[in-house]
Amino acid sequence: MLALLAGVGLSLTFPPSWVGWLAPLPLAWLFRAVTNHSPERAFALTFTFAAAFFGILLLWLPDSLTPLFGPGVAALYPGLVGLLALTWAGTAALTRRVMGASTLWALPFAWTLLDSLRALGPFGFTWGSLGYAFAPTPLVQLADLGGLSLVGLLVAVAAAALADGRPRVLLGGAALLALGLVYGLTRPPDPPGNARALLVQGNIDPRAKAGGRRADELQRYLNLTRAGLAADPARLVVWPETAAPAAPTFPEVARALSALDVPLLLGAPTEQGGYRNSVYAFGGGRVTGRQDKVRLVPFGEFFPGRVVLDGTYRVVFRVLGLPALTGTVPGRTLAPLPVGKALVGALICYESTFPAFARAQVRRGARVLAVVSNDAWFGPSVGGEQHFQMGRVRAIETRRWVLRAGNDGVTAAIAPSGRVTARLPRGVTGVLPVSFAEAGTWTPYVRWGEWVTALSALVLLGLWLGTRTSRVKRWVERGLLTELRRVLNSAGDLRVTRFGVDGDKPRR
Q: For the segment 234-252, what is each residue's pLDDT rounded down to a tens digit?
């Protein structure tokens, strides 16, 4: 029961909650429980804790998708929660078994390594990464030094200090948090926005899109953009993910966009060797660049074993009221797009939750970031807000302005400090004129990448070697003492005493 309550408590500290300061408290309970129990018991407690944590954090999934696809989709939710809970439980049990007496201080580094590993591969999923708990606090400013991993490590180290409980350790943990707070509160002010952009929020029902694209979708965005530019001229315009029903490589679409007479970044499908979720840069009457979505949503945009399991997938799609989906072809490269005179690093929806994608765009020359998204699938749940708050950290890691356009929201401008300078309400149709600036410098995180993850792996290796050395030392000491007793006790009838040998004059 305590594990269940502690897991729920941790979930309530994550965005959109503003009590992220409290995240180390329930995590401290878990770390102490893992340290004080056997690996098997640690596994069970952590699984319960993690199932409660992810069960609450991701509750928006069945809440938002069930009205769209029916109750059948809710059956997939426990499986996802269970798989995520297994990763936490396995990490806790393995750390307890391998690290022994060093378990408590190995756990923060093990969790940092786990969060980094969860972001890798086609099934990468970063919801629940510890660093996001501190996203609403000044401590998140540390992300420009070591990315989300450094912020997550700070959460975990604070939890370990609380679990340890010794006054000097608590004082050290408090000092570490204080240093992070000082760093966060003393960052330079955001550079003033010296350019204007127009972000467009079309607010089109995703179910209508799934049923077939229509020309009036494009007309809606064209009308909104014209009205917005008439009121406030802009240097560039950003439309959301899949805003246009057809790519601007089609002559009729290109003619319509050319009439706007402004550089444009827009989401549109690409039919080239399969369906691709793309973002296009358009200006001067032609396409100036294209970026295909690289990181696809598992079981949403790509379906593992789709050919082999065709029959199973067709049954599932039929139950959910969907056509026989074939999935999306992933992109292979990331490169900034020239939108007018600006080099824009585009992140398509899900990609904004992965630090590596924004970092890669900046290293390739992006001077401003743009997130194009369609969060209308989330409905009125907190899923869209969680997505937005996770993407907000990309501005801090790279110290770049982020221009975000969502189909039904969140449409906003985010300064390099992570401050939201302008935002449209969700679920409305409208435009948002914003100011922004370009930047060319690299943060330590952009320059050095996941050095915190590498450091965590080295620390774990050092703790493991230290544990092995201690065990070997104990084995040697026990072996020498046993051999010494055997030799002495085999010397006739002599009996060893603390003063000497019986029969002799007592002496020390």
A: 999 999 999 999 999 999 9
* 405 vs 272, more confident: 405
Which residue ranges form the domains of the chain, and what is each CATH number? 2-187 (no CATH), 195-295+330-448 (3.60.110.10)
Q: Roughly how many angstroms between the first and final C-alpha of the chain, as a whole number?
A: 59
Of 365, 324, 340, 122, give the one whose Cα is nearest residue 234: 340
Q: In this predicted structure, what is the pLDDT of residue 508?
A: 42
At residue 463, what are phi and psi to the nearest 5 degrees? -65, -40
pLDDT higher than 80, residue 506 = no
CA angle 468, 470, 473 (to 5 degrees): 110
DSSP structure string for 306-351: TTTTHHHHHHHHHHTT-------PPP-----EEETTEEEEEEEGGG
Mean pLDDT value of segment 214-221: 89
Distance separating alpha carbons of residues 459 and 175, to the nearest angstrom: 21
Rounded Cα–Cα distance for residues 468 and 99 (Å): 9
List Cβ neighbours of 121 (8 Å cut-off, separation of 6 or more): none
Half-sphere exposure of 38 (CA within 13 A, CB side): 2
